[in-house]
Design brief:
There is one protein chain. The protein has one domain. It is built from 18 helices and five strands. The chain has a five-stranded parallel sheet with strand order 2-1-3-4-5. Helix 5 packs across helix 18 and helix 6 runs parallel beside helix 15.
Length: 336
Amino acid sequence: MIAVRLVRVLLVITLLLFIAVTPAFALDGWLADHGREHGLSWNLLRLQELDQDALRAHPSGRVAWLVGPSILRDAIDEEALNAQLIERGSELRAFKVGTDRGAPGIAAGLVAELPLREGDVVVSSMSASNFRKDWLAFADMPTRFVTQTSTLGELWDTRELTVGERLEASVNYFPHTYWSFREETQAGATVWLTIPWDGWPVRPEARFHTRFRQWETHPAFTRGKLKKGVVRKRRQTLNTWDKSPSQFNRRGIDRMQRRCEQADVDYILVDFPTTELMARKLTGTGVHEAWAEFKQELGAVTFERPPDEHFYDYMHTNAKGRASHTTAMAELLGER
């Protein structure tokens, strides 16, 4: 009898400790603040800490939300874009949320967090490589990124995950903050535990995660060449092509369109072309035509392809490419 009571007491203590510690595992928890590394976490935090009054301080208060993957992140200079919008007399001011592997299926979760108002504009980007039958596996997407940007119902609509994977991932929602941000929290705990060896921890900064990379050329990239492994892994053919309604990123576009319709804001879908090298080497017969038809079906805007020298690898623009895309974006938004 004493043993049973002791077990009950221990269970209660464990539960209370769990409840007490859970806030430290939140997106803005003090442990997560010292272990944050990935762009998705940094951008979710930026949205959570957003000062809407400052963002909407201009006369119209209208905002153009630019949301998407690292291609969009590196294609647009937010500060330069806003300067050009002001110069053009636009009513809009831009706010960019760009993250690694932030294709439409992930971006939709970011758009869901936006404080949209009537008159705003949402711009998201997509690439042909986003529409594969095996995209989550192809992108090596951590399941926690899916749960950080999806409701439980949306998780269960993700057919690219097996039933077992969806069951396991469902644990992330009970409670959501504890499981979804545990990676950065555990990394932060490690930083604190190693104080005797590494000294007092310093809270990391977002760096390029909320701006853009400043490489002229990627350290591991040789201009004009693609490694054999890259071609083997990334080459897309009509056999891998998938634009069906249940495909992860196709669903993401639908989610963003519905969100914008509900908020009575304009939605613009854009394509920032990759290098000519990638288009030639990594795209199989028929995919170019299928991609062009799909973009027309969605009403997407295709930006002009910069010269290959204006990219730091085969798909991300450097400063020169970013300057031309930023000007093109200012022209696009200036018409709204």
